[in-house]
Amino acid sequence: MEYVLSVDVHNALVAAAYRQRGFDEEEAAQAARFCEMAAWHGIKTHNALKALHLDDHFGSGNRTNPGCVPGAKIQKLPSRFPAAEQWNANRKLGQAVAFEAMETCMRLADRYGVGIVSVDQAFHYLWGGGYVMDAAKKGYIAYTNCTAALAEVVPFGGKFPTLGTNPHSWGFPTTDAIGFPIVIDWATSTVAMGRVQQFLREGRELPPNCAVDATGAVTTDPAKVVALLPFGAHKGYGLSLINELVAALIGGSLPTIRSRPEKAPPGEKTTPNFFFQVIHPEALSCGTFARGRDQAANIKAVIEDILGHGNESCLLPGQIEHEAAQRSAAAGGLIFTQAEIDEFKRIGEAVGVEVKAQAYEPTSVARAN
């Protein structure tokens, strides 16, 4: 059974939960904006429950050494490169930093054709696909990667988790061609740890060859998972390694102590890192498209060729999220499982927000209270 929760109630709940933790009004609004975006597009692994869980365990909830500091200010460092900015986030809320970084990249791309922002001393920004999707809807090519909060992934051929789930996210401005932006967004583990937590909540088993238990044996029981496996064997390992190397160039430190200050030697850093890049489509065009097509028509022709020849039933990356957004629009709100609504109600009781939801019936959905 699924349920519909109104956007207004959802956002009031999320914002109240962040304000209760000491975040200011702007940060709370950005947190709610992000969680709405994730839920609207059907992202179960990085919705509000995941965001609050991360903050509880590694963020402001860590009273001894908080990985996220409410009210922190971004320090924008001097740069000799006009299209590249370097920021010290000072452990500010990751979602707020990411929204601002992507907006900055778009402004830089408008002027220079490309813009990048690298971020040190960060706190996890959750679903990277949301930020690139937002930029792609505005007409840009966008990319981001980050180092995940924890080293939870065993390198190919190894035994001990020394890599993060380390996502890569690309967004392409294809709305005019196909009705939605292509968004290629993946963790470099076979599954995200958020998926493990989701399956644990819902009493479901994991697919095979995703995770290992304390003995290093492959397990499908989410309650026994202690580490994840990279997707595509050596290929996923290599992609995960990219994030760690980019982070190392930015200023990131040892993966195995990230978000684990109790294990860090004096003077070490335990924060994640972000990298953002936006390219203006005009910066790529060489202007010689076949048969008189312009850039937009050429994108459409290429996609149609890829999905032709008997491939018409194939999905494009971002299509599932687009269809989830259509489902949310038809429902008049955000769609959650019973287990998720129960958790929202517990949060609501703690922050003084009443959570009411209505059963979701796809053929006739009333707006939730």
Descriptive overview:
With 369 residues, the protein is of the alpha+beta class. It has two domains: 1-70 and 334-369, Orthogonal Bundle (Hypothetical Oxidoreductase Yiak, Chain: A, domain 1); 79-189 and 230-331, Malate/L-lactate/L-sulpholactate dehydrogenase, NADPH binding domain (Ribosomal Protein S8, Chain: A, domain 1, 2-Layer Sandwich), CATH 3.30.1370.60. Helices cover 38% and strands 14% of the residues. It is built from eleven helices and 13 strands. It has a seven-stranded mixed beta sheet with strand order 2-3-4-11-5-6-7, sandwiched between helices. Strands 12-1-13 form a three-stranded antiparallel beta sheet. A three-stranded antiparallel beta sheet has the order 9-8-10, with no helix packed on it. Strand 8 and strand 9 form a beta hairpin. Helix 1 (7-20) packs across helix 2 (25-40). The two termini are 18 Å apart. The relative contact order is 0.17.
Query: How does the major sheet shape up?
Result: 7 strands, mixed
CATH superfamily of the largest domain: Malate/L-lactate/L-sulpholactate dehydrogenase, NADPH binding domain
Q: What proportion of the residues is helical, as a percent range?
A: 25-40%
- In spatial order, strands of the major sheet run 2-3-4-11-5-6-7
- The whole-angstrom Rg is 21 Å
The CATH class label of the largest domain is Alpha Beta
Structural class: alpha+beta
Low-confidence parts, pLDDT < 50 over ≥5 residues? 364-369
Supply the number of helical segments.
11
Q: Count the beta strands.
A: 13
Distance between the termini: 18 Å
Instruction: Give the overall shape.
Output: globular
Q: What percent of residues are in strands?
A: 5-15%
What count of structural domains?
Answer: 2
- Mean pLDDT over all positions: 94
Element order, helices and strands?
A: EHHHEEHEHEEHEHEEEHEHHEHE
Q: Under the CATH scheme, which architecture of the largest domain would be assigned? A: 2-Layer Sandwich
